[in-house]
Specification:
Oligomer: single chain
GO molecular function: hydrolase activity
CATH architecture: 3-Layer(aba) Sandwich
CATH topology: Rossmann fold
Keywords: Hydrolase
Radius of gyration: 17 Å
Strand content: 15-25%
Shape: globular
Protein name: Putative hydrolase
Number of domains: 1
Pfam families: Abhydrolase_2
Order of helices and strands: EEEHHEEEHHEHEHEHEH
Distance between the termini: 27 Å
Number of strands: 10
CATH class: Alpha Beta
InterPro entries: AB_hydrolase_fold, LYPA1-2/EST-like, PLipase/COase/thioEstase
Structural class: alpha/beta
Strand order of the largest sheet: 1-2-4-3-7-8-9-10
C-alpha cells in the first residue's frame, strides 16, 4: 500500500494516497486518532474511503498524525495521547453511567496539544502549497477535540471540520475562539449508546457551534464509541464535493 512516514513540525505521521509520483493532491484530509490508540490507528480509513472511488483516489491525500504523548508508562505499549486523562475517573464514570460534564473544564495539556497540532497543520499547508480551504481537519474522540481546538485558530478557515464521537470542552474558551473564527462547515457524528463520551455532550457541542453560526451536519446513530458507516459515507461525500468544486 502507498504509505509513507513523515514529520511535519513537531509531529510524526503516516501519509496515504494513490497519487502519481509527480502529482500533488487537490485536497488533504488530516485525521487525528483518539486517546490510547497507536498513531496509525485510523490509517485504514484512507483505503476504505478511496476504494472504488477513482475520482478521489488521484486527488486526495490522507495524513494521520501521531499524538505527542506515549502511554507506555501507563501500561499501554504503542498507545498515544494528545493529553493525559484520569483513566480511573473515566472508568468510574463509565461503570456508574455518570455523564461527565466537561463544559467548564480546559483539560491540562489541551492547549499545548492544540499548539502542536496547529504547527503540524501549518507545516502541511506550507509544504503542500495548498490553501487551508483545501485542507480538512478530522478526528475521533480526543483527536476530534484537539482538531476542534485548532480549527478555530488557523490563519484561514479549513475546508471543513469533521468530529467523530467528540464532546464539548471548555465552553467559554471555545465560544470565544468561535466568535473570532471565520465560519466553516462541520460534520459531526455520535452514538446514542456511547459509554465513554455520552451523547448529551455531543449535543452540547452541536448547540454551541450552531449558536455561533456554524453549520453542523449531525449524524446520530444507535451504537457505542465508534465511527459508523454513515459518518464514513458523509466524509467521502465531503471529499467528493471538495474535489468536484476545484
Amino acid at each position: 500500500m502507498p504509505f509513507t512516514t513523515h514529520k511535519f513540525g513537531p509531529l510524526n505521521c503516516q501519509i496515504y494516497d494513490n497519487l502519481p509520483a509527480d502529482q500533488s493532491p487537490d485536497v488533504i484530509a488530516i485525521v487525528s486518532h483518539g486517546f490510547g490508540a497507536p498513531g496509525d490507528d485510523l490509517v485504514p480509513l484512507g483505503p476504505e474511503i478511496l476504494r472504488n472511488q477513482p475520482q478521489l483516489s488521484e486527488r486526495v491525500q490522507f495524513i494521520f498524525p501521531a499524538a505527542p504523548l506515549s502511554l507506555l508508562e501507563m501500561g499501554m505499549p504503542g498507545g498515544r495521547a494528545w493529553w493525559m486523562l484520569d483513566v480511573a475517573e473515566l472508568n468510574a464514570a463509565i461503570a456508574s453511567g455518570t455523564i461527565r460534564d466537561q463544559r467548564d473544564k480546559t483539560p491540562e495539556g489541551l492547549v499545548e496539544a492544540g499548539q502542536q497540532l496547529q504547527e503540524f497543520v501549518i507545516a502541511v499547508q506550507q509544504e503542500s502549497g495548498l490553501p487551508f480551504s483545501q485542507i480538512v481537519l478530522s478526528g475521533f474522540s480526543q483527536g476530534s477535540m484537539v482538531s476542534t481546538e485548532v480549527a478555530f485558530q488557523l490563519p484561514q478557515p479549513p475546508a471543513a471540520l469533521v468530529i467523530w464521537s467528540g464532546t464539548l470542552l471548555c465552553e467559554q474558551r471555545w465560544g470565544s475562539l468561535a466568535d473570532q473564527s471565520p465560519r466553516f462547515p462541520v460534520q459531526q457524528s455520535h452514538g446514542t449508546q456511547d459509554p465513554i463520551l455520552p451523547y448529551t455532550g455531543a449535543i452540547w457541542l452541536k448547540e454551541m457551534l450552531e449558536q455561533h453560526d456554524f453549520t453542523v451536519d449531525f449524524s446520530e446513530f444507535v451504537g457505542p464509541h465508534t465511527i459508523p458507516d454513515v459518518a464514513i459515507e458523509k466524509f467521502r461525500n465531503l471529499l467528493s464535493d471538495l474535489t468536484g468544486s476545484l
